[in-house]
Amino acid sequence: MRKLAIIGATGYIGSQLLNHLNTHFLVTALTRNNTPFAATQANCLYKKLSECEDQFDVIINTSYSLHVDKATIKKENVLMSLAIKKMAHFETHIIHLSSLAVFGFGLDREIQASALKNKNDYNYVQSKLEMENLLLSIFNSKQLSIVRLGNVWGPENNSWTQPIADALTWQLPVMPIHTSFSNITFIQNTVSYIHFVIKSGERKLFHHLAEFSALTWGEVIESVSIALNRKAPFIEALPPYPKSLLAEFQLVLNEENSIKALKKIKNGRFTSACFIKILNNLANISNRNSSSPSKGSYTIDPVFYWVLTCNTEFKNEVLPEWKPIVSFNNAMALTNEWLSTAGYNL
């Protein structure tokens, strides 16, 4: 039986891959930390990444640095890429799960199924992009497959499914006024495609998976709103998405709270590349002067709205022989069944 490693096996996608692939391969679940979780899966081993001395026939990497400091992101991603190199032999197939976010949260950069240059951006975007390029610098196209996933949708997903259900429950603005592409991939189809890539033996370098990309967020949200019997409020005032350094500076200048302004600079898309030494010193300023949120306030991350209002389609670029195993209607039925089980529609 072929030996397969999943890095990030405790995450949403990693755990779904683990549940599926453990019946087809001898799977080792790898985590960066000693994260406690029940080792109940048959045919699976559980190890800490830094302590693993094995080599594998297939390595699936779902992990990347999540640190807020960009210098730390670089260091952690380098260590991750070197760990993958250590566990690979010359015929190992490395499948790295990346994201459509490498083209910006608003998909304002040209979408191409090829390598991209590292650019300063928000932490998540920059980390994803740098991880891609680190692996491209270590492995050749006969070993490496980079799968850029669309917005992963499915039961229990805490990136899109839960926030939308929460927003509808609390009657927060969530429905885009204008048509916007959902660019989603359903979790079972994601797992199916990764397995197909392994079985096919074809070493295509770049894959873009968003089988339901053409569907609008309106269609997705409407299905959830019907299941929850909640009317979806429209998004009227959109948080601006900066597409230039000048636009980001304007956002900072418009911020009345000085502490929030400094945070915007340090964690910004473009400005964090400027005045880095000064910003590192300012980062330790106390928040004691910042105003507390008003009672009963509820805030959604601007990234959530930027994605909901994206007017660019992230089209499929996958192996032509693969077909999704779950239709959109079935995907939403499974999602709505989970929403009921989770108590959203009580």
- Percent strand: 15-25%
How large is the count of helical segments? 11
CATH topology (level 3) name of the largest domain: Rossmann fold
Mean pLDDT: 87
**Unreliably modeled segments:** 282-298
Count of folded domains? 2
Task: Classify the helix fraction into a percent range.
Answer: 25-40%
Overall spatial form: globular
Q: Can you tell me the CATH class of the largest domain?
A: Alpha Beta
SSE topology string: EHEEEHEHEEHEEHEHEHHHHH
Structural class: alpha/beta
CATH superfamily of the largest domain: NAD(P)-binding Rossmann-like Domain
What would your notes on this structure say?
- It is built from eleven helices and eleven strands.
- By secondary structure, it is an alpha/beta fold.
- The protein has a seven-stranded parallel β-sheet, sandwiched between helices. A two-stranded parallel sheet has the order 7-9. A two-stranded parallel ribbon has the order 8-11.
- The N and C termini lie far apart (46 Å).
List keywords for this structure.
globular; two-stranded parallel sheet; Rossmann fold; 2 domains; alpha/beta; seven-stranded parallel beta sheet; 346 residues
In a nutshell, what does this entry contain?
The protein is an alpha/beta fold and 346 residues long.
List the helices and strands and how they pair.
Layout: E1 3-7, H1 12-21, E2 26-31, E3 44-48, E4 56-61, H2 70-87, E5 88-99, H3 123-138, E6 144-149, E7 151-153, H4 161-169, E8 175-176, E9 184-186, H5 187-200, E10 206-209, H6 217-228, E11 234-235, H7 245-253, H8 258-266, H9 276-282, H10 302-308, H11 328-341
Helix pairs in contact: 1-5, 2-3, 4-6, 6-11, 7-8
